[in-house]
Amino acid sequence: MALYKAEGILLKQFPWSESSRTVVFFTDRFGKLALVDRGGRSFKSKRGRLAPFTRTELTFYNSEKQTRGSLSAADAIAAWSFSGEGDMGRLAFASAACELGLALLPEEEPHEELYAYLCRYLSALDTAPRSGLGGLFIAYVLRFMSMLGYHASLTFCATCQSPLSPVDGLRFGPAAGGLIDATCQGTQDRYIRLTANEAAALMRLQSTSLEDAVGVLLTFAEITRLTDCLTRFLQFHADLTTELQSIRWLDKLKAAQPTGPS
Ligand SMILES: [Zn+2]
User: Fold this and answer.
1) Lower CB density within 10 Å: C or N end of the chain?
2) For the whole model, what pTM was predicted?
3) Are 181 and 161 spatial neighbours (Cβ–Cβ below 8 Å)?
């Protein structure tokens, strides 16, 4: 049996008995990693609660006989609090990034650059002005997709490869893999119609830094439409099987309190 250490962020936990669970982390050294946490749900467990949005030092055992490693210790290094103005939005956009990681990261394939990028994104979400949260989220998703090999075609028409400018009437074709100009918009595909502002934001956010993404101002309706474009793209080209529950939750929350959280 060998002992390993890695730093990770909790993506999800799956309880399978009163006291035990499987925990899935995105780690710096091993990529997405599922570990058995025997006894971890028990009140007597020394490990206590595993907190979300926390850089955690993990110690785990692995033996050739078992398919999954076994969590031995989990020590918090630093946590993001998301307590600033618009905290519900901050939490939802952070949760959505974890949902995407759980759905799309390959198992036990190291991706240190992407891990560092997630940490930078969570730090930016923690401190950005409320008005910049949506731009930050869309920029993160676009870069995350590209880093995993799912690059949306946004500067050239996904069908005829003509250069695009952000004018009214461009549509996003999830199956085609990006924006479609007016000449290529057939009637069979289910395209999402975008305003000039939405198309311009999408184009800009694909190539901008997280720091600059905060300056791209989007309404909540624009954020949900752009999120819809990207999740439908990922449902078609990758392993995403559902909508992002965190964004739906935020949507419902907004509908219930029109002047509330963003
Ligand atoms: Zn075209």
Assistant:
1) N
2) 0.93
3) no
